[in-house]
Design brief:
By secondary structure, the protein is α/β, with parallel strands linked by helices. The chain has ten helices and ten strands.
Length: 290
């Protein structure tokens, strides 16, 4: 099995999780094919396969778009892969520094699922001497919240973990909510793990600041043309393998959180109101809109 085929299977099966990790893995897999051929027909076929592996992943699509846009301009076509990976690494470092400014000693921060952007912020704040508590939820049905809790606890951060349905109680006891994002639309709405919109409503109810933390390549330029961000529906066996007759299961992986429930979006470019982020992205990454 080739690296490309193996990586594609891992992205589909959720062995590779998190929007940024998916984007990096997908671009690396594409790099193998880019090293084999520069035939644009074949390359576009591979781009389509990778893009369809997880439909709610504009960071992956933007990374692949960057590669297709610029590989002919490089002395070595696969250099674009290194450039994409370098972007994600640098943007995470920048985002972590910016986001850590929102955290103060004695705070309680709530988060949901596993977002590498959020953990980067929390770890950066902790390593720079800030002491705080994190509350988080398990994130059914794949338990990504446990990964977050484990990473933070191993770093020395105090974590209070609960089932998803205890989120209201967790948020009520928090000073700040930080979540990730898998996509940002032209309206400034954020698509993130299922449950996020409900938690945003709780934060609004208790007047707790609620920020989405993401690199700006998760903006989906397709939404400029009127397309809705697709919501991935996962295999219902993840929820209940053998349900009784007359029970219909659904398993949406993500949902849309409206812009008016966000205090702001924390990116490598700075902190922006959702409605102003798009212009910043267009200014910095004009190729994304071509």
């Amino acid at each position: 099995m080739s690296f490309y085929t193996d990586t594609l299977a891992k992205i589909i099966s959720l062995e590779v999780q998190g929007a940024e990790n998916i984007a990096i893995a997908g671009v690396q897999a594409f790099g193998e094919k880019l090293g084999e051929t520069q035939d644009t027909v074949l390359l576009n076929k591979y781009v389509a396969e990778l893009s369809n592996a997880r439909v709610t992943e504009p960071a992956l699509r933007n990374g692949l778009k960057y590669c297709m846009r610029f590989f002919k301009e490089r002395a070595k076509p696969t250099d674009v892969v290194d450039e994409v990976i370098a972007y994600f690494k640098k943007s995470k470092e920048q985002l972590a520094q910016i986001g850590a400014e929102k955290i103060h000693d004695g705070m309680t921060v709530y988060t949901h699922c596993h977002a590498s952007s959020v953990t980067a912020i929390l770890l950066h704040a902790f390593k720079n001497g800030k002491r705080f508590t994190v509350r988080n939820t398990e994130t059914r049905p794949k338990w990504q919240g446990r990964k977050t809790a484990t990473e933070l606890a191993e770093a020395g951060i105090q974590v209070i973990h609960s089932v998803d349905s205890a989120a209201r109680l967790q948020i009520k006891e928090s000073d700040l909510v930080l979540v990730g994002a898998d996509a940002v639309t032209v309206e400034g709405n954020v698509v993130n793990k299922i449950g996020t919109a409900m938690f945003a409503e709780f934060a609004h109810l208790y007047q707790i600041p609620f920020y989405s933390c993401t690199n700006s390549w998760k903006f989906d330029p397709l939404t400029v043309g009127g397309k809705d961000e697709p919501i991935e529906m996962r295999d219902t066996k993840e929820v209940w393998e053998n349900p009784p007759a007359n029970v219909t299961l659904i398993n949406p992986a993500f949902e849309l959180t409206p812009a008016d429930r966000l205090s702001g979006i924390i990116t490598e470019l700075g902190v922006f109101k959702p409605e102003t982020l798009v212009s910043q992205v267009q200014k910095e990454y004009s190729w994304m809109f071509a």
